[in-house]
Amino acid sequence: MKIRVVLPAVAAVAALALTGCVNNSDSEGAGGGTKTPATSDIKADSAAVALLPKDIKDSGKLIIGTDASYPPNEYKDANGNPTGWNVTLADAIAAKLGLKPEWQVSKFDSIIPNINGGKFNMGSSSFTDTLERQKSVDFIDYYQAGTLWAAPKGKTVNPEDACGLKVSVQSGTVQDTDEMPARQKACKDAGKPEIQVLKFDGQEEATNAVVVGKADALSADSPVTLAAIKATGDSLQASGESFDNAPYGFVTAKDSELTKAVQAAVESLMKDGTYTKILTDAGVEAGAVKEAVINGGKS
């Protein structure tokens, strides 16, 4: 089981050693399917339900894959079940579709293969909608997030001048697959030492690497970095402003009927105010969007 929040310094190291914080299996199993208070009163939207593929509609459930290690978006509660505003929003989508959410906790980089393999119906794990990912799956965009760096309190780190530094990231994120390779190449082309990228299976571990001095900085999605700074008290500070804003998207199989059904469910949540309430309650409303675009990522 992963720790719920990032712990300061020595306590963090001890907690990580005791809990075995890395997802070592392809799928850790299902979380609860009980509706949260924020979604318990949501009524199914008949227009969205009508768009569902017959097999999913008949099953009565929406199987959702997530890597619950990215607070405050998605992480594990004290009982090991997925929680966070992204989980609440996906639960609300299931409610709009008249389905029961069935959560499957999995490694981040195995979620898309499991969708394409038919094991999961949808992915909800702070996926950045990119052109490369669009080649294999569809995205229903629902949020705008940027990348934000953080460093130890009192230490100045400039993401644009980070050659030779150690930077921690969560494996499989856009910071790992896109940002760091581009920055490493820029350093090499300039004749400077490359950034040393420290990759971790979970964001908690990536954050703790900075807290305990193993990394000079971390790079993550803006709401995640801000939550990490808050969770560590005075240990971390933001390094500059967020950049490279891009959409988060719920993931579905390429060209599937479910894509349109999920889009209709998200737009229904936007129309009745539930979407705004969920984001506002979590303090992440700054990234709200006005419509659920399919495959809106442009890079």
UniProtKB/TrEMBL annotation:
Q: Where is the Solute-binding protein family 3/N-terminal domain?
A: 61-282
InterPro entries in alphabetical order: Solute-binding_3/MltF_N (IPR001638)
- Pfam families, per this entry? SBP_bac_3
SUPFAM superfamilies attached here? Periplasmic binding protein-like II (SSF53850)
Q: Which UniProt keywords apply?
A: Signal
For whether the record's keyword set contains Signal, the answer is yes
What start and end residues bound the annotated signal peptide?
Answer: 1-24
The protein here is known as: ABC transporter substrate-binding protein
Q: Which source organism?
A: Leucobacter iarius
